[in-house]
Structure prediction request, 270 residues.
Amino acid sequence: MAIDLLKLQNKLGYGVAARGMCHGIAYMAIQAIIRDALETYISRIRYLEETLSQHNNNQDAAINEIVEKINVAYEKRKNKQNLDCDEIKLLDILNWFDGVQIYQNHNKLLSGGQSYENATNFFSANTNQNEKENRKIFVIAKELNILTKELIDDIFNKIDNSKEPIAFSLSAPGHIISIGKSSNYKPIYLVNHNIHKHILNKKSLYSEVFCAFKYSMRIALSIFRYSYQEENISIKYVTNNLDKDDLCELLCIALQDGHAEAIKVYRGDI
Prediction:
């Protein structure tokens, strides 16, 4: 069972809403994937889930214990006292939530602050790409499409066949998830709000994505692909076999995520 991350953050004093949190969680996961820090990311999740399990899945009891321990660790660090491994991990969770806060309030980072033609980065100002923990992250492809099994199979193949860290974000109005694979942690990993899953095959990926977007049969998705290697951005948007409802959904997500080229086409077709 997953810990209620929204409730935990609120208990720690963060001002966070469910809609904004999924952007923050997704972007932090993308950083972990591309910067080969996925094992650290997963260890945080496991620690939280183990604490919840120790409290027989009682969210309030588990969250109260975590918050109390974080506060103790925070005071020890402030007073320059030595920290044990669990306390270091707890403060790392606090840093993670700080990052979620940054990105939950900037869900237009991908559309407002980036030159798609030059694939300018938005995650870091670092110039040494050999420093994995600080390497820049680039959007190298963006796509608008309708959720289908074929689309998810294509995403799975791109991730599975990549020899370098690769990540995707999939967003619809009101929700975003991330999927990817690091170079030092081979399983494909999906992050959906409170849910964190290893993806074994195409079928399991389609099932998780379908569930993440409330089992909608014809939902429009905005898809971004990320890498630490800069290249000119690839642009793709579906235009065939669309009815009026599809076009309206695609235009909505295009406006939300800044797909300027697609907006012109879809407005003309409605």
